[in-house]
Amino acid sequence: MNKSDSLYLTGGTNFASVLVCLLAAILVLCLKLYRMGVYRLALYQVLASLAFAMAQTLQIIFVDYDQNSEEGIRYDRLCTTMGWLVLYTSWVKLLFTMWVTFHVFCFAVFHKNMIKLEVLYVVTSLLVPVVIAAVPLITGTYGQDPNIGSCWIEVKNKRSDLQHLVEHPEKDLVEYPEKDLVEHPEKDLLEHPEKELVEHPEKDLVEHPEKDLLEHPEKDLVEHPEKDLLEHPEKDLVEHPEKDLVEHPEKGLLPLASTPEF
Fold first, then answer.
1. What angle do CA 193, 199, 204 make, to 5 degrees?
2. Residue 231 — very low, low, confident or very high, per pLDDT cuts 50/70/90?
3. Which of 1, 66, 136, 158 is in the most buried spot, having the most CB atoms within 10 Å?
4. String of DSSP letters for 36-92
């Protein structure tokens, strides 16, 4: 269910609650049942439910609300006010329900009429929620609930974060750029090519073979032995002495000159 459907469903059901609560309040007033203490408590409960239902019904105005848009910025204060109103009326309704239950329990079990505590019922039910609803206002946590789309307490959980990242993946890369490097390591290599050389030094040798020859000159001699002979010609004469006789034939006649004549 998307945000608009959720808001329409919430607003529609609470609008029906508004009609029912209005009818109940009108009946109590017309029949003058409020003269009896227990009916007055019931009337308080009905009025609290009416206020809560009206606050929930007004959430429909946030169908087009998007806190990431320019229009959504103008709704921030309205959303905070609506969140405070919903939380306050829900606690008023809860406390009146608690006191009605307490009153009926004392009358049914202990046969005591506790209507003398009516002032306590009303004062606590109206003032205690003010303190409770002020806590999110001080901490700045009123806002749009991404799970239902209405304005209440901002819900920070894995579900909402995952949904937000699916809709806006670029924000995750701004906060956590290393995730982009894991999926696209070539971007890191373009910015820091030295990292690739550390992990794969053979790539540097292919592009710059002279570096390998400086560190290991014997490899060059294996591939090009003529370079070694140019620098050290005596090695060639040891392996091939006939080359020396070609260049210096007198060396071959010396043994013949020392041979005695018969």
1. 60
2. low
3. 136
4. SHHHHHHHHHHHHHHHHHHHHHGGGGGTT--TTSHHHHHTHHHHHHHHHHHHHHHHH
How far, in Å, are 59, 80, 94, 129, 134 from residue 125 at the CA level?
24, 22, 8, 7, 15
For the chain, the first-to-last Cα distance in angstroms comes to 126
Residue-by-residue DSSP string for 200-213:
-HHHHHHH-HHHHH
Q: Whole-angstrom Cα distance, residue 224 to residue 226?
A: 6
Question: What would the pLDDT profile of 129-143 be if each residue is shown by its tens digit?
Answer: 999 999 999 998 888
pTM of the model: 0.59
Q: Which two tokens stand for residue 190?
A: 């373009």
* 143 phi, psi to nearest 5 deg: 175, -165
